[in-house]
UniProtKB/TrEMBL annotation, chain A:
<keyword id="KW-0812">Transmembrane</keyword>
<feature type="region of interest" description="Disordered">
    <location>
        <begin position="1"/>
        <end position="21"/>
    </location>
</feature>
<keyword id="KW-1003">Cell membrane</keyword>
<feature type="transmembrane region" description="Helical">
    <location>
        <begin position="87"/>
        <end position="110"/>
    </location>
</feature>
<dbReference type="InterPro" id="IPR000515">
    <property type="entry name" value="MetI-like"/>
</dbReference>
<feature type="transmembrane region" description="Helical">
    <location>
        <begin position="173"/>
        <end position="196"/>
    </location>
</feature>
<dbReference type="InterPro" id="IPR035906">
    <property type="entry name" value="MetI-like_sf"/>
</dbReference>
<feature type="transmembrane region" description="Helical">
    <location>
        <begin position="30"/>
        <end position="50"/>
    </location>
</feature>
<protein>
    <submittedName>
        <fullName>Carbohydrate ABC transporter permease</fullName>
    </submittedName>
</protein>
UniProtKB/TrEMBL annotation, chain B:
<keyword id="KW-1133">Transmembrane helix</keyword>
<keyword id="KW-0472">Membrane</keyword>
<dbReference type="InterPro" id="IPR035906">
    <property type="entry name" value="MetI-like_sf"/>
</dbReference>
<feature type="transmembrane region" description="Helical">
    <location>
        <begin position="160"/>
        <end position="177"/>
    </location>
</feature>
<feature type="transmembrane region" description="Helical">
    <location>
        <begin position="92"/>
        <end position="114"/>
    </location>
</feature>
<dbReference type="Pfam" id="PF00528">
    <property type="entry name" value="BPD_transp_1"/>
</dbReference>
<keyword id="KW-0812">Transmembrane</keyword>
<feature type="transmembrane region" description="Helical">
    <location>
        <begin position="123"/>
        <end position="148"/>
    </location>
</feature>
<comment type="similarity">
    <text>Belongs to the binding-protein-dependent transport system permease family.</text>
</comment>
């Protein structure tokens, strides 16, 4: 293995006694440990973040050598861009519904399946399984499950004598259908996060509450739920951040349609950046998404922490 | 429950009645749970069924979960209409190569951040934490330009190298490394071991559970990734399974059986790994939130 004998210039040399200086010639090896990660991060994470901000202030088109400065022009254009506002609305509706759905179902299941037996483990695995599958591939499967001609959903509705709708082609049903698939994909994740929390609830507190005459609902509300706060916070924040980045599912299932009813922010970004090649404008969209995610995360952290005091 | 009943003092005949009612309630809730679990899995069962069905069979009775008569045409079609072997290799190289590189890079950095003393350590830790907050889409467009400039679009290095460092991985491993007792390092140092040997022979072996979890979830996230391969590779030969299948699905005249066969094949490795090592999936995903 390498000896760390190569002098490097990262740390500024300082006057030291002779022995220490001899040691100084061998640079602190810690820098060599962090070097690969930070070299990669500098080129592929930090620089792109800064550059994206810079680009969002320009009219940046691919293939052109110079780019005209627009200042906040891209952002004011976004402000008046009704297609962007629509994408923002779609994304927020999707995120709120999916997160509420996945956390509620996940919580109920975690509570129900908190004991560990072979049977609960089997059920948990089944509920968790959609989480590991690719969103794009499951999106393809769902697109055909919801198809009016070959789909299982309308097939079964037909068996019940109902005329199944064209879920993804109907402007009123497309987004709710995506939301349902989003919840199906994610509730297993919330269940597992909350399961650890539920199992960490102190038995003695539950028993004390029971002796004081608290019923099941009261025990859940006043003993279990406060103990679950960290797990709830974690799954809510992660779930929201993921949901706000919605792309795979609508790209595959509806391609943003019918008439933009399922076009999300990231999809709009992809459209502007990689189809129209308006990179500056698309970067502005990315920064708005970033600020939205940041604001929502901070808000959720605040809200759930503040409630700790009451 | 039992104490409630004892204090309220029910009439003697109520005992067996209540007990059977409770048993019935429990039976009902377990039945409901089982139905829900089966319903959760049905899309995958249906996918597998359609992969083995003929178009005529599918259109004749869409309410059927399982093929009437079996055919391997779907698998044959997807294997011939797409360069399937090539796509599978791409997926393995992209997900596997990136994950291995990422584990190495992240663990080296996390080791220094957790166990070594050097100037600027706190600044670096802050940079890691701050870059955790930035969604990937912010970097996407400049990354595309960088790869374009380097002529790395449609190449493995273009797919792999930009993704081979992860702030979340560094952070997660650092949290794990910090908890390993310091006496182990000191003892090794007294024995003359340098930091690299301590990292390789003490820290990494002790961190196996964390490394395994990180490996599993990163591999899964990359195997399932869609947006990144979509942006980096435009030629069919450099696509990964999800992105190639998606484009295949949007072509006109879709062969359902072929598409579901492709979907089944692309899900199979993760499904198998999940069956064999479920713990790493659930622990890894529940602690990091990577999906």
């Amino acid at each position: 293995m390498t000896r760390f004998a190569e002098p490097m210039t990262t740390a500024p040399p300082r006057r030291r006694p002779a022995r220490a200086r001899r040691r100084k010639a061998r640079l602190n090896p810690a820098y060599l440990f962090v070097a690969p990660a930070f070299a990669l991060a500098a080129v592929f994470i930090l620089w792109p973040i800064l550059r994206s901000g810079w680009m969002s202030l320009h009219d940046w088109r691919i293939g052109e050598t110079s780019h005209t400065w627009r200042g906040l022009g891209n952002y004011t254009e976004l402000w008046h861009d009704s297609r962007f506002w629509n994408a923002l609305k779609v994304t927020c509706v999707y995120a709120v519904c999916v997160v509420v759905g996945q956390v509620a179902i996940g919580l109920a299941l975690a509570q129900w399946l908190r004991r560990t037996t072979w049977f609960t483990m089997l059920l948990r695995s089944a509920f968790f399984f959609p989480t590991i599958a690719s969103l794009a591939v499951t999106g393809i499967v769902w697109k055909f499950l919801l198809d009016p001609q070959v789909g299982l959903v309308d097939g079964w509705l037909g068996k019940l004598g109902l005329d199944g709708p064209a879920w993804l082609q109907d402007t009123r049903l497309a987004l709710p259908s995506l939301i349902a698939v989003g919840i199906w994909k994610n509730f297993g994740f919330s269940m597992f996060v909350l399961l650890a929390g539920v199992q960490g609830v102190r038995r003695d507190l539950l028993e004390a509450a029971m002796l004081d005459g608290a019923n099941a609902v009261q025990r859940f509300w006043h003993v279990t739920l406060p103990a679950l706060r960290p797990a709830l916070l974690f799954t809510t924040v992660i779930g929201t951040v993921n949901a706000l980045q919605l792309f795979d599912l609508n790209y595959v299932m509806t391609n943003g349609g019918p008439v933009f009813h399922t076009e999300s922010i990231v999809m709009y970004l992809y459209q502007r950046g990689f189809v129209d090649f308006r990179l500056g404008y698309a970067s502005a969209v990315a920064w708005v998404l970033f600020l939205l995610i940041l604001a929502v995360s901070v808000l959720q952290l605040r809200l759930l922490r503040y409630r700790d005091d009451d | 429950m039992t104490t409630d009943l004892a204090t309220s003092g029910p009439p003697p005949w109520a005992g067996p009645l209540l007990r059977s009612a409770r048993l019935g309630g429990r039976l009902l809730s377990w039945t409901l749970l089982t139905v829900a679990a089966v319903a959760t899995i049905v899309p995958f069962v249906w996918m597998l069924g359609v992969a083995f069905r003929t178009p005529a069979d599918l259109y004749a009775d869409p309410a059927r979960l399982w093929p009437g008569n079996w055919t391997g045409d779907g698998f044959h079609a997807v294997l011939t209409q797409l360069p399937f072997a090539r796509l599978a290799v791409n997926s393995v190289v992209f997900a596997g190569g990136t994950t291995v590189l990422l584990l190495l890079v992240d663990s080296l950095c996390a080791y220094a951040l957790a166990r070594l003393r050097f100037r600027g350590r706190n600044v670096l830790l802050w940079i890691v934490l701050l870059s955790l907050m930035v969604p990937f889409q912010v970097m996407l467009i400049p990354l595309f330009l960088t790869l374009f400039r380097l002529d790395w679009l449609n190449t493995f290095q273009g797919l792999i190298i930009p993704r081979s460092v992860s702030a979340l991985g560094i952070f997660m491993l650092r949290q794990f490394f910090v908890k390993i007792p310091r006496e182990l390092d000191e003892a090794a140092r007294v024995d003359g071991a340098g930091p690299l040997r301590i990292y390789w022979q003490i820290i990494l072996p002790l961190a196996k559970p964390a490394l395994a979890s990180l490996f599993v979830i990163q591999f899964m996230a990359l195997w399932n990734d869609f947006l990144w391969p979509l942006v980096v590779s435009s030629s069919t030969d450099m696509r990964t399974l999800p992105s190639a299948l998606t484009l295949f699905s949007s072509q006109s005249g879709v062969d359902h059986a072929a598409l579901m066969a492709g979907a089944a094949i692309s899900l199979a490795p993760l499904a198998l790994a999940f069956l064999l090592a479920q713990r790493f999936f659930t622990e890894g995903i529940a602690t990091t939130g990577i999906k």
